[in-house]
Write a structure and sequence with these properties.
134 residues, alpha/beta, single chain
Length: 134
């Protein structure tokens, strides 16, 4: 089981430069969990794809539905106090700290390509590259 960030989720459901990495991470460990914030972040990603005319509204709705179904039962609410603690000792956003918080709470790694998170929380996180080639 691993915590994944929205970029990996997006890579799994949207054709992008991250798709191959996301598929490889999924092949290595398909037991993905994520904080509830992924939904809002993923909708922002879908919004970008919509505004750039890369997908239709119908396709965006279908992709959102598929991703939500995929992560059903694997979404977690995080402790707001823990997020504030992480914010106080890092330069990461509250959104990023939610993923780190979940990783701490479950005692499992957050797989990400976010350099800031990787630098700020090296004991909790692992880069996609290191995860795949460990």
């Amino acid at each position: 089981m691993i915590v994944v960030d929205t970029n990996l989720i997006a890579g799994l459901f949207l054709s992008s430069a991250l798709s191959e990495q996301a598929e490889n991470v999924f092949s290595t460990d398909s037991d993905w969990v994520t904080p509830l914030i992924w939904r809002s972040e993923f909708q922002s990603v879908l919004g970008f794809f919509l505004r750039e005319n890369l997908i239709s509204l119908e396709a965006a709705s279908q992709i959102m539905s598929e991703a939500a179904q995929f992560l059903q039962g694997k979404e977690y609410e995080v402790n707001a106090f823990r997020v504030l603690e992480l914010l106080s000792c890092s330069n990461c956003s509250a959104y990023d700290c939610e993923f780190v918080s979940l990783s701490h709470d479950l005692g499992i790694r957050l797989v990400t390509n976010n350099q800031r998170i990787l630098e700020q929380f090296p004991r909790t996180t692992i880069s996609v590259e290191r995860f795949l080639f460990r």
